[in-house]
């Protein structure tokens, strides 16, 4: 297992290097000079002389390869520069808003697990019944509707019409219900459909028939054998959802005025706060990469044949 993880970590090095290059190049392609934006945010007239001085201060007068080397060296030391707007270190700013996003994402993932796994199991066991038809309709709606539209519907029904839940800000657990449900519903639909399909496929396998002939109870067969095999593709989707929810929280946080990283990055985009945007893109990409690494490790734990094949 140790060799399996080590190989996966080594394989991430060129991927992370490529991500850093793409992230750096994205800022170079912006139509506005970052030095000019910096001056405008500082309320200083962007004269040619002031722009030249600012470019020298920010290191933008250096060749691109030199700028990249300096940037990646500082990034390794977790120094992503300072925000053009607040003048505070970029990483410090993101870490200030990150707990709210983590709270929203973790709550959504818990809801995904709690809702999708039982729904998929019962939908597969009671195939073509009323419950299965309702479940499949729910999956269709959840997969088809964008998260911002679901959020607006929740605001209309649960806040404006029923006056049950708050829709803005972060405070009590009531403030967390609607945004976390909005963020979770798309993944609930995906997991339910995927897990239902894999459970049905596994129920038709020979090992299930052999287990029944041995007199094992159906509940034991499903929990011990069927569900374990069916969880392999779900683990893949779950790993992708971790990064997807962190990145997708941008829309949900703005709909519900949730004070997280997503809302902060939208403000940075409008203000052309390039150091913040650059740091955010790099961190989100790294989270996606390590989410995939976690999936590979879980795959190796659930199915030893995968890691044994590489040893």
Which secondary structure elements does this structure contain, and how are they paired or packed?
Layout: H1 2-28, H2 34-41, H3 48-58, H4 64-76, H5 90-125, H6 130-144, H7 147-161, H8 174-203, H9 206-213, H10 218-255, H11 261-270, H12 274-302, H13 304-308
Describe the structure.
The chain has 311 residues and is an all-alpha fold. The radius of gyration is 24 Å and the shape is flat. The longest helix is centred in the last third of the chain and has 38 residues, at 218-255. It has helices at residues 2-28, 34-41, 48-58, 64-76, 90-125, 130-144, 147-161, 174-203, 206-213, 218-255, 261-270, 274-302, 304-308.
In short:
The protein is built from 13 helices and no strands.
- The biggest beta sheet, please? none
Shape descriptor reads flat
Can you write the helix and strand succession as a string? HHHHHHHHHHHHH
Q: Give the integer mean of the pLDDT values.
A: 79
**Stretches where pLDDT falls below 50 for ≥5 residues?**
none
Helix content: over 70%
Proportion of beta-strand residues = under 5%
What's the total count of β strands?
A: 0
Category from helices, strands and their pairing: mainly alpha
Please compute the radius of gyration using only Cα atoms: 24 Å
């Amino acid at each position: 297992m140790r060799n399996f993880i080590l190989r996966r970590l080594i394989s991430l090095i060129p991927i992370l290097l490529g991500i850093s290059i793409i992230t750096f190049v994205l800022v170079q392609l912006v139509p506005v000079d970052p030095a000019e934006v910096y001056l405008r945010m500082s309320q200083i007239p962007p004269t040619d002389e002031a722009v030249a001085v600012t470019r020298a201060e920010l290191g933008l007068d250096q060749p691109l390869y030199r700028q990249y080397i300096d940037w990646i060296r500082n990034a390794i030391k977790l120094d992503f520069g300072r925000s053009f707007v607040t003048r505070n270190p970029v990483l410090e700013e993101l870490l200030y808003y990150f707990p709210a996003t983590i709270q929203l994402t973790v709550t959504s993932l818990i809801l995904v697990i709690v809702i999708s796994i039982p729904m998929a199991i019962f939908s597969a066991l009671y195939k073509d019944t009323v419950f299965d038809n309702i479940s499949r309709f729910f999956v269709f709606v959840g997969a088809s509707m964008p998260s911002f539209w679901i959020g607006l519907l929740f605001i209309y029904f649960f806040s404006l019409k029923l006056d049950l839940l708050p829709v803005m800000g972060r405070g009590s657990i009531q403030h967390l219900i609607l945004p976390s449900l909005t963020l979770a519903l798309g993944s609930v639909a995906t997991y339910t459909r995927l897990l239902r399909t894999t459970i049905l496929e596994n129920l038709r396998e020979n090992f299930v028939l052999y287990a029944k002939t041995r007199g094992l109870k159906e509940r034991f067969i499903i929990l011990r054998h069927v569900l374990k095999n069916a969880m392999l593709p779900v683990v893949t989707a779950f790993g992708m959802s971790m990064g997807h929810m962190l990145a997708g929280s941008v829309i949900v946080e703005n709909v519900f005025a949730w004070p997280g990283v997503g809302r902060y990055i939208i403000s940075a985009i409008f203000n052309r706060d390039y150091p913040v945007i650059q740091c955010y893109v790099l961190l989100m990409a790294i989270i996606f990469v390590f989410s995939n690494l976690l999936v590979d490790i879980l795959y190796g734990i659930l199915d030893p044949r995968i890691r044994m094949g590489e040893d």
